[in-house]
Amino acid sequence: MLASTLERALNRGLPGSPRAQALCAELEGRRIAIEVPNVARLLVESTGMALRVTSGAGVADAEIAGGPLGLLALAGDSAQEVLQRRGVEIRGDALVASRFRELGSLLRPDVEEALSKVIGDIPAHQVGRIARLAVSWTGRAVQTAIANVAEYLAHEKQDLVSHNEGDAFLTGVEQLREDVDRLEARLDLLKHA
Question: Do residues 176 and 159 both lie within one domain?
Fold first, then answer.
């Protein structure tokens, strides 16, 4: 059911995007596996005219594996940051994965537009605005919580080094390295003099 729902949602946007149609044709016969470990594995294949989504095992040209939030964030603009920080892993042909990622971002359904057909433009816009505010607030709340925990562990429990102490230590190490390099250069001059 998940595979067929996703297939319909992706293919619905194809006729409205010439770039998506070109990518779909370019990827004809290629497959990408999208996996949330221990939860689900979907295979997305381009037929050249549409996308076919199936669930289960199978051979793919590229595989993307990670947590649900990391995989959703991968569809955004900061893919490189997601790959570095969110535990999303890409295996196989990176070019195919990149093309499927671009195709997926072009075919993202506009939830607000779909909702406007059911409840009208103004209420759908308000619901979308409230959802964006909620997501933004949640992101800020998570960042604040992480900063508070780090501060508690650094200052109260003293399990971590504070940011200022870490910077001072690294600056000292860098200064010591430069001093040792200068001393070594002076010793070499004295040997050869």
Answer: yes
Q: Are residues 69 and 128 in the same domain?
A: no
The per-residue pLDDT for 1 is 65
71-125 per-position pLDDT tens digit: 766 665 555 555 555 567 888 988 998 898 888 888 876 667 766 777 888 888 8
Buried b / exposed e across 149-159, counting CB within 10 Å, b at 16+?
eeeeebeeeee
CA atoms within 13 A on the CB side of 108: 13
What pLDDT, on the 0 to 100 scale, is given for residue 155?
A: 79
Strand partners, 44: 32, 53
Q: Burial of 189 by CB count in 10 Å (0-12 exposed, 13-18 middle, 19+ buried)?
A: exposed
Residue 119 and residue 186 in one domain: yes
Write out residues in the chain with pLDDT < 50, as ranges. Answer: none
Distance, CA of 117 to CA of 89 (rounded, Å): 37
Beta strands of 72-161 (E only): which ranges? 89-92
pLDDT at site 161 = 82
* Stated length of the chain: 193
12-48 b/e with 16+ CB inside 10 Å = b? ebbeeeeebbebbeebeebbbbbbeeeeebbbbbbee
Helices (H) and strands (E) in the chain, counts: 8, 5
> What would the two tokens of residue 147 be?
């900063």
Same-domain status, 30 and 81: yes
